Amino acid sequence: MNLRQLFLLSTAIGLVPIALSYGLAPQQSLGELFGLKIDSVNGFHIFRAITGLYLALVVFWVVGALRASLRQAALLSLVVFMLGLAAGRLASLRLDGVPDRLLLVYLLLELGIGVVGLLLLKRPD
Q: Given pLDDT bands bounded at 50, 70 and 90, which one contains residue 125?
């Protein structure tokens, strides 16, 4: 297994618990983690949709790790996903202020994973 495959798989595995924390029981997990109160159908709907997006990309990254023909596209989608999340968090830092420490850790991880992904995009498979 090469470095790009390991990177795709490890990132995919690492995101599963985060995705599930958003969608399985958002009222519980988001309340405990961040003090968010999710108590409406609209709130549940939004967070379960986010979970679906995360899990769909996780599946694509796993498939990309296993199939050479999809590896470049999977890696590119991972970079866009991570740097897109990081860009939103950076905008929020500027507009809204400093969030919970765990969200700052997410920001650092998203930036790091995005940058490593960019470097791996330039490497041959």
A: confident
- Torsion angle (degrees, nearest 10) of CA 6, 59, 82, 65: 30
Helices (H), 1-125: 3-23, 26-34, 41-66, 68-96, 101-122
CB 84 within 8 Å of CB 49 = no
Separation of alpha carbons 85 and 58, rounded Å:
15
Q: pLDDT tens digit string along 34-57?
A: 999 998 999 999 999 999 999 999
Q: Which pTM value belongs to this model? A: 0.93
Distance CA 101, CA 90 (A): 14
